[in-house]
Design brief:
A: alpha/beta; Rossmann fold; eight-stranded mixed β-sheet; 14 strands; B: mainly alpha; two-stranded antiparallel sheet
């Protein structure tokens, strides 16, 4: 009996290994936010990804690649419908693109249930990093807490006595402030949660003024951050209570919209534009040439997601239907990256260094981000230890 | 603490006055023409987009604002002549369906013409930055101050228009009993066109004033439509005074209520919970006020029809 089982298993394995042919084309489902106040984020991820595919000659892992793009409009219900279509009708091989964690959490079960690999180029919710980690979910950017943890450490190291916190009331907002507080041990003067997608921050600005903190830490991705920083600058608060932010709120899209009022803002990232490696130099130059915009974190993440998929598919010789082998490849492959070296930890989230940038005035009068210092090295997220797979 | 409340009071006033610009048009169209216009928010969006587009060509905020008001009023007049005139004869349900369709059409059209990404309308140079109201304690952005001033002036202007002019008399007559007003010799069709265009122009004014503070994007009309409807239910349909009082009530409850409730909650729970529950309670308070008004005074605080 015992032997029979082993033999059957062996046959099954042989069968599995023998039958899986190399696919002749690769279908990528790129669902991201392409309309509304946060569209800039999704557009950058998409353009970064597309640029990488272009650099690789229209092929990922040697397979001719079709990227099916869809707009989730930052709406979880729309996202669920698109996911359904991706899985049932388009029959995609690998999915990527979601910006917002609430949307990621709404669609992740469907991708995981269908055993379709999801390579997140942005959303890195804690729910999918700890106990809820999955063999099919990978994140090429960061765990949501990471950039906030880095800034928490920086603000702590800088000896700032008290900080007011502001984030939208949704999963990544909570993750953000939890991450900041994990490394910042000073006084929290106030902890404010605003509505997701809120446009007017007059009430929050008044609250921050009243809190009397030495600095304010904000996590407001997309249009929210643009509006907040614009309104904050107009309230004359920029110099009085300086803003510290994760890279998203100090990125080039925000700088472009807000202008010189941003000068001086500190933000933390896992990538910066001046990084000295050949992949990055090519990415930065061509992204600007193709789109006319300076690349953002989001664009770099989209680009790196494509590089990871390329390396993993190449490693399995194009046999994307061999899920076990492809998973192993995603976990172990050394993919090139515009951020230099990084590796994926046991929960499929990156282990990497984090840096500090500052928005500065350039010689020609324009403002943009400049690298300041390294804040953390080979940082592992706080949830990895709870992940058993 | 005092200054926090004062600043929030100003914020409430600013928000309330902007709501008033929308609610005034909504209540007149509803009161006088008896048309439920869900697409009122779309006129606000169109006004904001036009202001941003004009600004990109002219680089002059004031000119862009005036042109946007004019163009939106014109669009309003055209819509009234072609569509709303027909809707008027139909049931409220048909009106809701038709104007909801109009929202979808407006959103998609704006997306096709201006793109899906938000447009930026910068704050004019001379209005940038804060004014110091109380030395070192109370600052308020110049541009928000301007919005308050414009809001007060428009409210005053509308009050004079409705109560002191012939056309205002017709409007009041139309709101209290349109049939009778027509019989008494009020030319009701041109009046409808005028009222609709006026409402559209006020929407554009609100859109152009809020554009530099908020981003100009597709769908911005829907989020402000619900509070505008709450305002006219609270104030009384068709009543200009009701719209003003309702707007200020809603604005104040939302902003000042938010701070007070948060402060109260902080006394009994941790700041994180207080800060997420407080604002939710404040927006609930607005709906509760509406429910209370509907229960005790279903015709609203200042009904137009006696």
């Amino acid at each position: 009996m015992h032997h029979m089982k082993k033999i059957a298993l062996g046959c099954a394995m042989l069968l599995a290994a023998g039958v899986v042919p190399a696919a002749d084309a690769l279908k990528i489902g790129m669902m991201t936010t392409l309309s509304g106040p946060a569209s800039g984020l999704g557009i950058d991820i998409r353009d970064g990804f597309d640029l990488a595919v272009k650099h690789l000659g229209g092929k990922l892992g040697g397979l001719p690649t079709e990227v099916i793009t869809a707009d989730d409009a930052q709406n979880p219900d729309t996202a669920k419908q698109i996911t359904e279509r991706f899985l049932k009708k388009d029959k995609i091989d690998i999915a990527t693109g979601v910006v917002f964690s609430n949307i990621m959490l709404a669609v992740a079960p469907a991708f995981i249930g269908a055993e379709t690999f999801y390579i997140s180029a942005n959303a890195g919710p804690s729910q999918l990093a700890g106990e809820g980690c999955s063999p099919y979910f990978f994140n090429v950017a960061w765990q949501n807490d990471n950039l906030h943890e880095a800034m928490g450490k920086r603000v702590q190291d800088q000896g700032i006595k008290s900080v007011a916190l502001l984030a939208p009331n949704y999963p990544a907002g909570k993750d953000a402030l939890t991450g900041f507080k994990r490394f910042y041990k000073g006084d929290i003067a106030d902890e404010i949660y605003s509505k997701l997608g809120q446009l007017d921050y007059s009430a929050e600005i008044a609250q921050i003024r009243a809190a009397g903190a030495d600095a304010v830490y904000i996590f407001l991705p997309g249009g929210m951050g643009i509006n907040f920083i614009k309104q904050y600058a107009q309230s004359g608060m920029m110099k009085k209570v300086p803003i510290f932010a994760p890279g998203f709120s100090g990125d080039e899209d925000v700088v472009k919209a807000v202008g010189p009022a941003m000068e001086g803002l500190y933000n933390t990232t896992h990538w910066y534009r001046e990084m000295d490696n050949p992949a990055n130099k090519r990415f930065v130059a061509d992204f600007e040439k193709e789109t006319g915009r300076l690349p953002t974190l989001y664009a770099s993440q989209g680009y790196d997601a494509a590089l990871l998929i390329d390396a993993a598919v190449k490693a399995v010789g194009g046999k994307v239907d061999d899920k076990a082998a492809l998973r192993k490849a995603f976990e172990t492959v050394k993919a090139p990256s515009v951020r230099g070296e990084y590796r994926l930890g046991n929960n499929h989230y990156p282990i990497q260094p984090y840096y500090l940038r500052q928005v500065v005035k350039n010689a020609d009068g324009s403002v943009s981000n400049k690298f300041v210092a390294k804040v953390m090295d080979a940082h592992v997220d706080a949830y990895a230890k709870d992940c058993k797979m | 603490m005092l200054y926090l409340l004062l600043e929030q009071g100003l914020n409430g006033l600013q928000y309330g006055l902007m709501l008033f610009l929308l609610a005034a048009g909504l209540t007149l169209v509803f009161g006088i023409m008896d048309v439920i216009n869900l697409a009122h928010g779309s006129l606000y969006m169109i006004g904001a987009f036009l202001a941003a587009a004009f600004y990109q060509h002219l680089e002059n905020y004031l000119a862009a604002l005036l042109l946007a008001i004019l163009a939106t009023a014109l669009i309003g007049a055209l819509l009234e002549q072609t569509l709303y005139r027909r809707l008027q004869k139909m049931s409220h349900l048909s009106q809701v369906l038709a104007t909801f369709a109009l929202i979808l059409i407006a959103n998609e059209s704006v997306k096709i013409i201006f793109g899906a990404q938000p447009l930026m309308l910068p704050v004019p140079e001379m209005l940038y930055g804060p004014i110091e109201l109380v030395e070192d304690e109370l600052y308020y952005p110049r541009f928000r101050m301007l919005i308050i001033v414009v809001g007060v002036l428009v409210a005053l202007g509308l009050y004079l228009l409705v109560n002191r002019t012939r056309i205002g008399m017709w409007m009041r007559a139309g709101a209290s009993n349109p049939g009778m007003a027509a019989v008494m010799g009020v030319r009701i069709q041109p009046l409808f066109t005028f009222v609709f265009a006026l409402g559209a122009g006020l929407c554009a004014l609100a859109g152009a004033l809020l554009g530099p503070l908020l981003a100009v994007n597709v769908g911005m009309g829907e989020s402000i439509l619900i509070p505008a409807f709450e305002v006219i239910v609270i104030g009384g349909i068709g009543s200009m005074r009701g719209a003003l009082v309702g707007s200020l009530l809603v604005g104040m409850i939302d902003t000042v209520g938010r701070v007070l409730l948060t402060l109260l909650l902080k006394a009994v729970s941790d700041p994180a919970t207080a800060n997420s529950v407080g604002p939710t309670l404040a927006s609930m308070a607005v709906s509760l006020l509406m429910v209370a008004v509907l229960y005790f005074r279903p015709q609203g605080l200042f009904p137009a029809r006696g």
